[in-house]
Write a structure and sequence with these properties.
Blueprint: H1 2-9, H2 13-22, H3 29-38, H4 45-60, E1 62-67, E2 70-75, H5 81-87, E3 95-99, H6 109-121, E4 125-130, H7 132-135, H8 139-144, H9 146-162, E5 170-175, H10 177-189, E6 195-201, E7 219-226, E8 240-244, H11 261-272, E9 315-319, H12 331-343
Parallel strand pairs: 3-4, 3-5, 5-6, 6-7, 7-8, 8-9
Antiparallel strand pairs: 1-2, 1-4
Helix pairs in contact: 3-4, 9-10
Family: Belongs to the AB hydrolase superfamily. Lipase family.
Transmembrane segments: 6-26
GO molecular function: lipase activity; serine hydrolase activity
C-alpha cells in the first residue's frame, strides 16, 4: 500500500520536502514551468501556476447540503444566498461539516452513515464537502493540493458565517486526510472565527508526520480518535486523544474486518459510538507507553460525539475495542480486562 511506503520514506521534515519536490505527479509544477518558459514566461510563471492549480481544484469541488438526512442541494464552492435558501438550511440551524479522505467521496457508505447519525442526534444542517476528483488519483497529487483544498474550505465556511451561520454552533469532522484538513481549516479561520467542536478520526500521518502541530488550536473543543500505527498520525496534540483498541495503534477487529484495516475501522467505530457505549479505561494499559498525561476518567465514561464537551476530561483516553461489530466492550468485559491488568 502507498501509505506504508510513504510511512517508510517520510522520516523527517527534510525528507518530506525532498520527496514532494522529486516525485510530483505527471503534470507537475516543474514540468509546466518549463512549458511556460518555452513560451517566453519568466519569473511570474510560478505565481500563474499556483493560481491555476488553486482554480482547478475549486472547480472540481462540490458542497452537498443535507436536511433531515435528505440531500437538498449540491452546488459549487462559491455559495450565494439563493443557494442557501434552496438548501433549506437556516442560519439558526446547528451546522455540521464532513470532510472525507483519499480515494473517498461524500457518497461513501461511512459518510452517508455519519450524515444519518448527525441528522438524527445533532439535527440542523449537515454539509459534506466533496473533493473526490483530486482525491481519486495518487496520494501525492492530493497531498500537493492540501493548501488549495484548505483555502477553498475556509472560504466556504466564511461564506456560511457571512450569511448568518454561527461558528459557536458549528461542528467539523474529518477522517484520515480529511482530519488533517479539519485541523488546518480550524487554525486558518482564527483569530477571527473559532469553531465550537472538531472531531477527527485517525488523521493521516504520511506527508504530515513528524512535523509537530498543535491541533488543539483548531477549535474550542478538539478530540482526535487514533486507531492505526501505519496510516494515522503519531502527533497527539488534541484536547482529547482517544486511543482505540491496542494503544491507538491497531484494532482486534482487523481479524474479522480485514478489508477495512485498523485505519478504516476508526470511522466505523466513531459512527457506532452514537448508538453503542464505548467505555474508557480508568488508567492506561501497562503496555501503552506515553509521554503525555492520561485523562482523569470518571466512572462509566464513554467516548464519541460530544456536543457538551467536558473540560475536566482532557489528555489521552484509552478505549479497548472488540473483535466483532459494533466493536465495543460491555461493562462486564471491561471489568474482566481490569482483572487481567492486575494479574500482570
Amino acid at each position: 500500500m502507498i501509505y506504508s511506503k510513504l510511512g517508510i520514506l517520510i522520516c523527517n521534515s527534510t525528507l518530506i520536502t525532498i520527496f514532494i519536490l522529486s516525485i510530483h505527479y505527471a503534470d507537475s509544477k516543474l514540468d509546466q514551468k518549463q512549458i511556460f518558459l518555452k513560451h517566453g514566461t519568466r519569473y511570474e510563471s510560478t505565481d500563474i501556476l499556483a493560481r491555476a492549480f488553486k482554480s482547478d481544484v475549486r472547480k472540481t469541488m462540490t458542497v452537498q447540503f443535507f436536511k433531515n438526512n435528505t440531500k437538498t442541494l449540491e452546488t459549487s464552492v462559491d455559495l450565494n444566498e439563493n443557494m442557501l435558501k434552496t438548501s433549506g438550511c437556516l442560519p439558526s440551524d446547528k451546522i455540521s461539516i464532513v470532510l472525507h479522505g483519499w480515494i473517498q467521496s461524500c457518497s461513501d457508505e461511512w459518510a452517508l452513515s455519519l450524515i444519518d447519525r448527525l441528522s438524527f442526534y445533532r439535527k440542523g444542517c449537515v454539509i459534506c464537502i466533496d473533493y473526490s476528483t483530486v482525491a481519486s488519483s495518487s496520494y501525492m497529487r492530493l497531498y500537493s493540493n492540501f493548501e488549495h483544498i484548505t483555502e477553498a474550505i475556509v472560504g466556504i465556511i466564511i461564506g456560511l458565517i457571512q450569511h448568518g451561520f454561527d461558528p459557536n454552533r458549528a461542528y467539523l469532522f474529518g477522517f484520515s486526510f480529511g482530519g488533517q484538513l479539519a485541523s488546518a481549516v480550524g487554525r486558518s479561520l482564527q483569530p477571527h472565527f473559532t469553531l465550537q467542536n472538531i472531531d477527527t478520526c485517525d488523521m493521516a500521518g504520511p506527508g504530515f508526520d513528524p512535523i509537530a502541530v498543535d491541533h488543539s488550536k483548531a477549535g474550542k473543543n478538539v478530540q482526535c480518535f487514533h486507531s492505526s500505527r501505519d496510516k494515522g498520525t503519531l502527533i497527539h496534540s488534541c484536547h482529547r486523544n482517544i486511543m482505540l483498541g491496542s494503544c491507538g495503534l491497531s484494532q482486534p477487529s482487523v481479524a474479522s474486518q480485514l478489508h477495512l484495516g485498523s485505519h478504516g475501522l476508526c470511522v466505523d467505530i466513531y459512527i457506532n459510538s452514537f448508538d453503542y457505549p464505548f467505555y474508557a479505561l480508568k488508567s492506561p494499559p501497562p503496555e501503552c507507553i506515553s509521554f503525555t498525561a492520561a485523562a482523569k476518567i470518571p466512572d462509566d465514561y464513554t467516548v464519541g460525539y460530544d456536543e457538551h464537551f467536558n473540560k475536566q476530561v482532557m489528555g489521552k483516553i484509552y478505549v479497548p475495542t472488540s473483535l466483532h461489530y459494533p466493536y465495543n466492550l460491555s461493562k462486564k468485559e471491561l471489568q474482566l480486562l481490569y482483572m487481567d491488568f492486575k494479574r500482570e
